[in-house]
Backbone:
C-alpha cells in the first residue's frame, strides 16, 4: 500500500496532454479539474462565491460592456456602456435619480456616440474625476463625474486651458532716425498649473534701430488681463522667430533693449488629431497624457506637454516640457494597441512589445528618445492588466496569455506564456474581456468567446500560476473590477435565458470571506433577504418561470419555480438566499509514482484537510457514483458551523489504471480544501 499526499494545488487545472507527465514539478501541485473554484496563493482551493444580481441592462437585446471608474478607494463605480448610452453603478446598486430631479426614480443615464459593435475596442484611462475614452472612429471624449447624479461626456478641446491676452498695444518712446519695425506676441500662464496659452495676435510698432537705442528709449506693451493668469510671457520677433524677452505679473511690460533669448521661443499651436485623425489608445506617463495609434498613422505616439493633459504645443528649438511626437520604425505596420506606464513606457503593438524612454531616463521632447523592441508576440485589443510590476496581456491571436516584466540581468523586458500548461481551456476560443482583482486574492478573470470564464491565480514572486474555469446558467460577456471597502470586487455581464427570453444582467461576485454558513452567497443571479421570518420571498421577477435553489436558514431547498416574482417556503425563515445553483468540482491528477503507469490502483482510505467548510460535500467514484459525505455532530447541532480540520471519507472505488480523487459540492455551502491524503493499493494489470 502506498500513501499519496498533495499539500498544494497552486498549479491549477492542467491540460490533458500533461496527464502522463508526473515528472514535472507542476504535476505535483496540479489538478485534472477545477471548476467554479479557485486557487489561493497559499496553496488551498475554495469554491467561488456566488453572483448577486445588481440590475438588468437597459436593453437586453444588445451587448453591453462594463468598465471601472475609480476616483479613489472609496469612490468607485461600474459604468454600463451600451448602444449610445452609459449608466452607472456604485456599491452593488444602480444609481437612481432621487426625488427632486426631473428623472426621479429612473437610472442616471447619459448619451454617448458609441455603437454596440465598437464598445469592446474602446480604450480608456482615468485621471481623478475624468475618464478619457478613445477609438479611431470617434473623436476623443472625456467622461466627467460632476456629482453622484451628474455625469457628462464631452469632446476634448486640444488648446491650452487658458486664453491669450487681447487688445495688445505697443508704443515706442524715443527717436526715429533709423526706423525699424518690432513685432511681439504674448502668452498667459495659468495660475494653478503654469500651463502656457497659445500665442496672442501679433502687434507691431516702429522704433529706433536696436543698435541705436539710447538709455531713455524703450517700447511699452499693454494688454488686457486674462482671468486665471499668474503671469505673462513676452516674445519679440528675431528673423521671424518669436524669442523670449521677459515675464510680467501685470498687464504691462517695458522692453528697454532686452536681448531676446532664442533658446526659448513662443509656443507653436499643434493639434495632432485634426481632420478626425483620432487616436485609438490612451494613458498617462511622467505627468504627460499619452495618445497613440492615430487613424492616419497607427504607429504614431503623441504626448502632451509636461503637467498638462491636452496641450500639444511645441517651441523652436524644442524644450524639455514640449509635447512629444514619435513614430515606431518597424518592417511591418503594426498598430499600437496599448500603452502601459511602468519605469519605462511600454507599448504593446499588434506584432511586438516595445520599451520607450529617454536615453537618460527622462521622457522629454528635447532628449534623445529611444524605442526598442523587447519581444515579438503581439497583443490583442483586450486591455492588459498590471500585477505588481508585471504586465499580463493577451497575445494577438486571442488564445494565449503572457506576462512581461523587467529583467535586471538583461536590462530588458521579458516574460513567459501563462497558458502553456492549461491550453485546453483556450483551444478554439478567444479572450474577449479581462480584469484583475488584487485583494484578497490575486486573480486574473478572462471572459471567453464561448461564454465561460477562465481565471488565473497569479503571484510571480511566489511562483503561483494556477488556472481555474467558471461556468454559470448562462454566458459571461464582460467583466470589470473595482475596489469596494476592503476588497476588489468582480462584476460580470451575464446573458441568461429566462423563461424563454434573453436577459442580460449585471451581477456582482459576493465576498468569499465567510466565517459562518449564513455569511456566504453561493448561488448565481442571487438575491438575499435578512429580517423577520417570512414564508414567501418576493422580488424575484428577474427569474420568473425558472427553477431555482434557496438556502433558507442554512437549509437547502431545491426545485422551486418562481411565479409572479415570488417563491413560497414550507416554513418561515429569516435568512434566505435565492438563485441559480452551480457546481464546484475538483479532481486530482492520476495518482502516479515513479513507476506506476499501467498498474491498477484502488483507493482504500481518504483524508481531506478542510478549512471553514460544510462537511456535506460529495465524492464521485470511478464508476460515476456520487456519495454525500456525513456531517459531524457539531455541524448537525449548529447549522452555521464551518469545520476546519481533517475529514475522513469512506472510499468506494474500484480498481482502475487512472485513480483520482473526485470531489463535488452541489449545495450552496463553502468548501476549502487544504490537502489530500490517500492510501492506495497497487496491482499488476495481469494479476
Residues:
Amino acid at each position: 500500500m502506498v500513501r499519496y499526499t498533495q499539500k498544494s494545488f497552486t498549479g491549477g487545472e492542467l491540460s490533458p496532454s500533461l496527464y502522463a507527465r508526473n515528472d514535472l514539478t507542476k504535476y505535483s501541485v496540479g489538478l485534472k479539474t477545477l471548476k467554479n473554484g479557485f486557487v489561493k496563493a497559499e496553496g488551498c482551493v475554495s469554491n467561488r462565491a456566488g453572483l448577486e444580481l445588481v440590475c438588468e441592462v437597459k436593453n437586453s437585446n444588445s451587448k453591453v460592456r462594463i468598465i471601472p471608474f475609480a476616483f479613489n478607494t472609496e469612490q468607485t463605480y461600474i459604468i454600463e456602456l451600451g448602444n449610445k448610452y452609459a449608466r452607472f453603478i456604485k456599491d452593488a446598486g444602480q444609481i437612481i435619480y432621487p426625488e427632486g430631479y426631473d428623472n426621479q426614480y429612473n437610472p442616471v443615464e447619459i448619451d454617448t456616440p458609441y455603437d454596440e459593435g465598437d464598445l469592446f475596442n474602446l480604450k480608456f484611462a482615468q485621471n481623478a474625476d475624468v475618464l478619457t475614452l478613445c477609438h479611431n472612429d470617434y473623436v476623443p471624449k472625456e467622461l466627467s463625474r460632476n456629482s453622484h447624479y451628474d455625469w457628462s461626456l464631452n469632446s476634448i478641446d486640444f488648446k491650452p486651458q487658458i486664453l491669450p491676452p487681447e487688445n495688445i498695444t505697443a508704443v515706442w518712446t524715443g527717436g526715429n532716425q533709423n526706423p525699424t519695425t518690432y513685432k511681439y506676441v504674448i502668452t498667459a500662464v495659468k495660475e494653478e498649473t503654469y500651463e502656457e496659452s497659445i500665442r496672442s495676435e501679433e502687434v507691431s510698432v516702429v522704433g529706433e534701430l536696436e543698435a541705436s537705442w539710447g538709455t531713455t528709449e524703450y517700447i511699452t506693451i499693454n494688454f488686457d488681463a486674462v482671468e486665471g493668469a499668474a503671469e505673462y510671457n513676452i516674445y519679440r520677433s528675431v528673423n521671424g522667430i518669436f524669442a523670449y524677452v521677459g515675464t510680467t505679473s501685470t498687464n504691462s511690460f517695458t522692453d528697454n533693449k532686452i536681448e531676446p533669448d532664442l533658446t526659448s521661443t513662443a509656443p507653436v499651436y499643434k493639434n495632432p488629431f485634426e481632420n478626425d485623425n483620432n487616436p485609438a489608445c490612451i494613458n498617462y506617463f511622467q505627468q504627460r497624457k499619452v495618445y497613440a495609434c492615430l487613424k492616419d498613422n497607427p504607429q504614431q505616439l503623441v504626448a502632451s506637454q509636461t503637467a498638462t493633459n491636452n496641450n500639444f504645443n511645441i517651441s523652436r528649438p524644442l524644450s524639455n516640457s514640449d509635447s512629444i511626437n514619435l513614430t515606431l520604425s518597424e518592417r511591418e505596420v503594426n498598430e499600437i494597441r496599448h500603452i502601459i506606464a511602468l519605469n519605462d513606457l511600454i507599448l504593446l503593438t499588434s506584432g511586438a512589445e516595445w520599451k520607450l524612454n529617454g536615453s537618460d531616463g527622462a521622457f522629454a521632447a528635447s532628449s534623445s528618445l529611444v524605442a526598442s523592441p523587447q519581444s515579438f508576440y503581439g497583443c490583442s485589443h483586450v486591455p492588459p492588466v498590471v500585477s505588481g510590476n508585471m504586465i499580463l496581456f493577451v497575445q494577438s491571436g486571442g488564445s494565449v496569455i503572457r506576462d512581461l516584466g523587467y529583467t535586471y540581468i538583461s536590462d530588458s523586458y521579458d516574460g513567459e506564456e501563462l497558458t502553456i500548461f492549461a491550453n485546453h481551456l483556450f483551444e478554439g476560443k478567444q479572450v474577449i474581456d479581462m480584469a484583475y482583482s488584487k485583494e484578497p486574492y490575486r486573480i486574473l478573470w478572462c471572459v471567453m468567446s464561448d461564454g465561460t470564464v477562465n481565471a488565473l491565480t497569479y503571484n510571480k514572486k511566489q511562483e503561483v500560476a494556477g488556472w481555474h474555469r467558471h461556468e454559470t446558467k448562462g454566458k459571461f460577456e464582460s467583466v470589470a473590477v473595482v475596489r469596494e471597502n476592503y476588497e476588489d470586487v468582480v462584476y460580470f455581464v451575464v446573458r441568461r435565458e429566462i423563461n424563454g427570453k434573453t436577459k442580460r444582467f449585471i451581477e456582482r461576485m459576493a465576498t468569499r470571506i465567510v466565517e459562518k454558513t449564513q455569511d456566504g452567497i453561493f448561488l448565481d443571479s442571487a438575491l438575499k433577504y435578512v429580517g423577520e421570518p417570512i414564508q414567501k420571498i418576493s422580488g424575484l421577477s428577474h427569474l420568473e418561470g425558472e427553477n431555482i435553489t434557496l438556502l433558507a436558514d442554512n437549509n437547502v431547498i431545491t426545485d422551486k419555480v418562481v411565479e409572479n416574482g415570488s417563491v413560497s417556503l414550507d416554513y418561515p425563515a429569516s435568512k434566505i438566499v435565492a438563485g441559480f445553483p452551480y457546481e464546484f468540482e475538483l479532481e486530482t491528477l492520476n495518482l502516479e509514482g515513479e513507476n506506476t503507469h499501467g498498474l491498477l490502483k484502488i483507493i482504500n482510505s481518504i483524508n481531506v484537510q478542510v478549512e471553514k467548510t460544510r462537511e456535506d460535500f460529495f465524492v464521485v467514484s470511478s464508476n460515476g457514483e456520487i456519495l454525500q459525505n456525513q456531517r459531524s455532530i457539531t455541524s448537525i447541532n449548529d447549522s452555521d458551523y464551518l469545520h476546519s480540520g481533517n475529514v475522513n471519507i469512506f472510499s468506494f472505488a474500484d480498481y482502475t489504471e487512472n485513480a483520482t480523487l473526485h470531489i463535488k459540492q452541489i449545495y450552496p455551502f463553502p468548501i476549502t480544501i487544504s490537502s489530500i491524503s490517500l492510501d492506495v493499493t497497487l496491482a499488476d494489470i495481469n494479476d
The chain has a mean pLDDT of 93. The chain has two helices and 53 strands.
